[in-house]
Amino acid sequence: MSDVEEAVTRAHHDEWARVVAALTRRFGDLDIAEEAAAEAFTTAVERWPADGVPPKPGAWLTTTATRRAIDRIRRENKRDDKHKEARMVYDNTPPEPLGAIDDDRLRLIFTCCHPALAMEARLALTLRMVGGLTVPEIARAFLVAESAMGQRITRAKAKIKSARIPYRVPAEEDLAARVSGVLAVLFLVFNEGYLATGPDTDPVRHDLTAEAIRLTRLIRALLPEDGEVAGLLALMLLTEARRTARVSASGELVPLGEQDRGAWDAALVAEGHRLVRERLAAAAAGMAPGRYQILAAINAVHTSARDVRDTDWSQVVALYDQLVRLDRSPIIALNRAIAVAELDGPEVALAAVDRLEDELAGYHAYQATRADLLRRLGRSGEARAAYDRAIELAGNTAETAYLTRRREQLR
Amino acid sequence: MRYLVSVIDDTSNPGSTDRQPAISAFNERLIAEGYWVFAGGLADTDAATVIDNRGEQAVFSDGPFVESKEYLAGVWVWEAPDLDVALELAAEASKVCDRKIEVRPFR
Fold first, then answer.
1. What is the mean pLDDT of residues A94-116?
2. Rounded to two decimals, what is the model's pTM?
């Protein structure tokens, strides 16, 4: 990649959200902001090789995009143009009262993740407007036809306009509730990347995990005091650190206990541990941790053990106990049971898992966990049936390969 | 910005009856804080008549335009600065009425 190409790519990464956000604030319209931002980057690709990379790429892009947006509004030549233009050029409207934090990008994120939008629309809009992914990229990420994804984004933008979803950071008292919605979106993006579904995708979509981490870092920079933001970032980093060790050369999922721990990304582990320590200090000072912080702490215990046999399972179970009190989800109970198997043996764990049948019988991880516990107890026939069911339900190619081999190994 | 706020009743999962005192108190608050434009409860869907005069002559038919287990039980019209305010009030309205609420902006 040439220096200029690299500069454009870096600017796209660093400045896209800032440019879109600044234009959205100025023109109050996501469509105009997005198209003008895209045009500004196209212009950069044309001009920078000849003119050189400007000293402040972000400012250059914002200025160029603003000009493009004004040109576009002029071209559209609506009857209230004169008035609108005057307001844009002199922009003497008093600034809107600021929310808890004043950053255009943060407003953009909260707008894209507004609870009045359907979850899938929030995902798509966040990746497009904040992440700068193209519509074909997002469509590919979620295995949706490009036209359908384009429509989903268009509809979401239309709803923002027609329902007048405000472009603002929620007030202090609503902030925590709204941040949790943003984090849920980012966690979904991450998980889809980490355990990609579908027969034709890579088992791990590094593009999605990387994007989720990048956006969570952005939120972290904007909301450094929020414990759950730090917790989610730590959780993602500690999970991402194990990514390359998670799929074998033959494309099979490698469970945590069998991974080559030397292949884990030490820098990501260290950064994740630093964040977890920061949250532990806050918890010691009386701030009750939320679910992402506890999940991050569980991952910190796993990644602290140099060998799986060194894992502090009682600590893991204690953290799951804490999590169960916050979140009664059967999936958390299932994960707790997996840790219990290491501490109290597979028989105790199986009893706990079996209690979840009503809620989780159709969930691949439930069947896979049961299969493994039955295998360890020597109940091969039942284990085989559970593996069959798990293979049927699993959507991830590497996971299917692993489960199939395990089933073949049964005597 | 004006919003049509619909109170949705559900035959299979009806809200509790006699919410009137709480609703009156909520209405008074809406008026005092400047959100209230109009409100009214509706008679049962049995009382509805649908008229179609797009053809040669007007056709009157008995009953609501769509039969469903959810139906409109009443409406508000609110004046609110933006959707966030309307949604916050609607969340409160759902509690007060013990029913689902739909919020839709006027064009």
1. 75
2. 0.83
Tell me the residue ranges of DSSP E strands in A63-148: none
- Residues of chain A neighbouring B1 (CB-CB closer than 8 A): 164
Whether A382 is covered by a domain: the verdict is yes
A72 occurs within a structural domain: yes
Instruction: Tell me the shortest Cα–Cα distance from B34 to chain A, in angstroms.
Output: 19
Print the domain residue range for A377: 317-411
* Residues belonging to chain B: 107
d(CA A316, CA A331) in angstroms, rounded, equals: 15
B107 interfacial to chain A (CB closer than 8 Å): yes
Q: Which residues of B touch A164 (CB under 8 A)?
A: 1, 82-83, 105
**CATH 3.40.50.10490 given to domain B2-105:** no
Q: A46, A68, A90 — which closes off a domain?
A: A90
Name which of A98-102, A165-169, A200-204 the model is least confident about.
Answer: A98-102
Does the interface predicted TM-score (ipTM) exceed 0.90? no
**Domains in chain B: boundaries:** 2-105
Q: How far is A163 from chain B (nearest CA, A)?
A: 6
pLDDT for residue A348 is more than 50 = yes
